[in-house]
Amino acid sequence: MGYLARNVEKRSDPTKLKPGVIRAIVVRMNYLPEGTNLPLTLEDHERGYIARYALGRDYHKVIRRRLAKLAARLADRIAPLSLGYRVFTDTGPVLERALAVKAGFGWVGRNSMVIDEKAGSWFFLGEILTDLPLPVDPSHDDDQCGACRACIRVCPTDAIRADRTIDARRCISYLTIENKGNIPEELRTAIGNRIFGCDDCQIWCPWNREAEATREPDYAPREALTDRPLDELFAMTEEEFLLATEGSAMRRIGYEQWQRNLAVALGNAAPTFERISVLKERLRDSTPLAAEHIQWAIDQLSRKNVSR
Q: What span, in angstroms and rounded, lies between the C-alpha atoms of 136 and 99?
């Protein structure tokens, strides 16, 4: 995640992103699908778990489009004065969580998420940096995590530290998405059936008990990806994978990483002769990266009591 060390000056000084900026309009959009039984999905190791944010349309596209419309409406309202602005949503060197706290959206929890006492943390953030001298809302930096350590306890790979930092080298979201190489062998079993990202620290956060579900149609989960059997997902060709993930945030990984992640999940699933046979067949024409994880899965399954 070396990109976080780049553009430090722009992160700390938004005027370097848009000259003349004096305000940040911060927005949020809920994305949790209604009626989602998250713990049940995670307990079924025969199905692939994909982080809920990635199951619908790519949020970057959805929010940027909405922010551009909002900025255009503001420009119309203040005409003939001109409005200088630039929109962001996890798309540039912007300290989004710090801006969200200053805008009164909540506090940064132990899991590094912005948490609102009413909305929880299942939401995206977006910003309009502008030169419009709007009144400033009071910040909300009152940390209400208290003595709770739920996110630390449930993190499968112990990536959340007691000092409120995240060890990205152990974080499943990093390992399955940002990481382009091998997944450390000592962490593979803990990954379970998580094939793209991880939601555990949000699932078990007490502040998410009453979190509001999204009403945005673009975030509706795609049937081709939602809680599908691991074997079916692994059987996808590259063309089928690209079709299923078109316009989604899952395009952040390619087919090779997809196969890598699924191989780890299959190695954590129940052992069957058919499953081992399929893995061996795929091993023959896989890339070195995928092949190493497929071989690991074969070895894992072969050591268990295999059933037909």
A: 12
* Buried residues in 21-50 as b, exposed as e (16+ CB within 10 A): bebbbbbbbbbbbeebebeebbeeeebbbb
Which residue, 82, 81, 86, is CA-closest to 68? 86
Q: Could you list the active site residues?
A: 90
Strand blocks (E) in 112-246: 114-115, 123-130, 194-196
Q: Which residue has the higher pLDDT, 80 or 70?
A: 70
Strand spans (E) along the chain: 23-30, 49-50, 85-88, 107-108, 114-115, 123-130, 194-196
What pTM was estimated for this model as a whole?
0.92
Q: Residue 34: what pLDDT?
A: 81
Kindly list the domain boundaries of the chain, sorted by start residue.
Answer: 2-33+56-130, 150-302
Neighbours of 148 (CB within 10 A): 15
Compute the distance between CA of residue 130 and CA of residue 241 in angstroms, rounded to an integer: 39
